[in-house]
């Protein structure tokens, strides 16, 4: 897909629920870099199952009980939420939905759009040491990307609190 913005963006990896502070940090960097913000929502519960004769992609859900109408409603709500957070900053914003493995898709879009950097938030909650060291999207991106990856804390630990892997 051609770059919908035309300039190299700051790419924001988005998951639901949206963490306003992460979006604001990404928009702040985009403003400082005089770049647009490309918000990429990756749905890991969906995958491309092939192509129809007209060339369109057949999308399937991992969960057979998942309702497409509900999924589209959630995506449009998420896009509206992102736009409402970014709008006051004056930063040009585009929102794009992808499906599959978040690390692979964020990397692919970042390469295709020649992103200046990738911004992601940390997971909320504590006690996720195994995910932090082996499976977090941020850690995987940091090891597989040639561009900067900014990880924005969503639930910072106070100076007297134990760290998530303690």
Please characterize this protein's 3D structure:
The protein has 166 residues and is an alpha/beta fold. The chain has a domain at 10-45 and 78-152: HUPs (Rossmann fold). The protein has five helices and seven strands. The chain has a five-stranded parallel sheet with strand order 5-2-1-6-7, with helices on both faces. A two-stranded antiparallel sheet has the order 3-4. A hairpin with a 5-residue loop joins strand 3 and strand 4. The model is unreliable at 126-134 (pLDDT under 50).
Helix-strand layout with pairing:
Blueprint: E1 10-14, H1 20-32, E2 37-43, E3 46-51, E4 57-61, H2 68-86, E5 93-99, H3 102-113, E6 117-121, H4 129-135, H5 137-144, E7 149-152
Parallel strand pairs: 1-2, 1-6, 2-5, 6-7
Antiparallel strand pairs: 3-4
Q: Give the overall silhouette.
A: globular
The description of the largest β-sheet is:
5 strands, parallel
Fraction of residues in helix: 25-40%
- Spatially, the strands of the biggest sheet line up as 5-2-1-6-7
Strand content: 15-25%
How many β-strand runs?
7
Low-confidence stretches: 126-134
Structural class: alpha/beta
Rg calc: 17 Å
* CATH architectural category of the domain at 10-45 and 78-152: 3-Layer(aba) Sandwich
Number of helices: 5
In angstroms, what separates the terminal alpha carbons? Answer: 43 Å
CATH class of the domain at 10-45 and 78-152: Alpha Beta
Overall pLDDT confidence: 78
Question: From N to C, what is the helix and strand string?
Answer: EHEEEHEHEHHE
And the CATH topology of the domain at 10-45 and 78-152?
Answer: Rossmann fold
CATH superfamily of the domain at 10-45 and 78-152: HUPs
């Amino acid at each position: 897909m051609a770059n919908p913005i035309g300039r190299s963006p700051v790419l924001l990896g988005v998951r639901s629920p949206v963490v306003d502070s992460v979006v604001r940090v990404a928009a702040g960097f985009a403003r400082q870099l005089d770049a647009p913000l490309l918000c990429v929502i990756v749905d890991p519960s969906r995958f491309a199952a092939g192509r129809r004769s007209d060339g369109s992609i057949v999308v399937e859900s991992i969960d057979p009980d998942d309702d497409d109408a509900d999924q589209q409603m959630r995506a449009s709500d998420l896009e509206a939420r992102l736009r409402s957070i970014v709008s006051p900053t004056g930063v040009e914003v585009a929102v794009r939905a992808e499906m599959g493995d978040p690390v692979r898709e964020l990397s692919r879009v970042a390469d295709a759009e020649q992103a200046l950097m990738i911004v992601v938030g940390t997971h909320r909650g504590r006690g996720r040491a195994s995910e932090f060291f082996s499976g977090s999207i941020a850690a995987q991106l940091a090891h597989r990307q040639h561009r900067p990856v900014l990880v924005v804390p969503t639930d910072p630990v106070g100076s007297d609190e134990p760290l998530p892997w303690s």
